Amino acid sequence: MTLIANPNPQDGPQRAIIHVDMDAFFASVEQYDHPEYAGLPVIVGGTGGRGVVAAANYEVRKFGVFSAMPMSRARRLCPDAIILPVRMSRYQDVSSQVFKVFRTVTPQVEGLSLDEAFLDVSASLALFGSIETIGANLRRDILNSTGLHASVGMAHNKYLAKLASDIGKPRGFVHVPADGVRAFLDPMPVGRVWGIGKQTLPKVRKLGILTMGQLRKADPAVLSKVFGNRTAHFQALARGEDAREVVAARAEKSISREVTFDQDISQPRVLYSELQRQAESVSSRLRARGLSARTIQIKVRDYRFRTATRRRSLPAPTTSTEVVFKQARSLLETWLEANQSTPVRLLGVGVSGLESGDEQNSGFDTSNQRALDQTMDNIKSRYGSGKATRALALKRNSK
Ligand SMILES: [Mg+2]
Description:
Layout: E1 17-22, H1 25-33, E2 42-45, E3 53-56, H2 58-61, H3 71-77, E4 82-84, H4 88-102, E5 109-113, E6 116-120, H5 125-128, H6 131-146, E7 150-155, H7 158-168, E8 173-175, H8 181-185, H9 201-206, H10 212-217, H11 220-227, H12 231-238, E9 254-265, H13 268-288, E10 291-302, E11 307-318, H14 321-338, E12 344-356, H15 367-383, H16 392-397
Parallel strand pairs: 2-4, 7-8
Antiparallel strand pairs: 1-6, 1-7, 2-3, 5-6, 9-12, 10-11, 10-12
Helix pairs in contact: 4-6, 11-12, 13-14
The chain binds magnesium ion.
């Protein structure tokens, strides 16, 4: 591998970083599963009275519909939109396939969400050639294995790689070479600098600074009125400097699922059944990422908006659906005993204390249980998770 002289010494040794972000992920999965929706506006989200938009495809964004908007507003903006419920376990399955593709080019994958990650491919250049070859392979392999499009940003640090994939969306493919940083950044609006949010932006603009180039060249003494002791930091970003590393182990600190019910629920039966679904979803995600968890947690919000979390740590980390569910169920039992027939608005299961690597001989999982988990994961990845659900939950918990 040829070592390239580093134009930004503060960046440390020259690295090759790729940011991959799936385009309109949930909505694209739905369009892929329903070819009849091709070219039509599609919204994924809560369809009940309290629903919000979880994802909007590019056809519906033209109407001003965006993520996190109340669904009622989205419906008014685009009455013809096809509105679909969130099928999280299906998106997790697709996400696992996408992350599998990531790991074919490097083990250095830092997942940011189900459909977005940083990859440090510095050590992969010798094998694959250029960063653009790797980026192109990733896009092709993701398309082949999932049928979906991703945007790829390539640069020598995370900040530039992320900006590059954003700017190219959808189906983006943008490489910012080390000697092209100024040409890339200088014309960009200053609001694109990480950390310049709604509060700071008007103050910066008041100084007459509208672009990153102007921020880069501005007098630090003037900037310090707005940025204080963060002035040097923001000017470094305007120069495209970012020394943060891709940290695979830090990718996920916790994994959780939660649902806000359309109507408050007081039947324990229904709550346990939902809990089983969430435990399955959380633990299959753990296994897909090659992680195991030490701590199981539940979150319960009652009809008065009082939120409780209850957690329990295990003597050894687990990946087992059965273990996650049993612990979560016992936590919920305790909560229900203390809050007799209080209607529940939100319920969630989470795991934390994540460690890489499957647990071995932890004494917590029987080999049968592991085989069952593996079979469920295989069925899910082949057919989508709608096909396979443990029929145990309702029966076992209706007491
Ligand atoms: Mg995305």
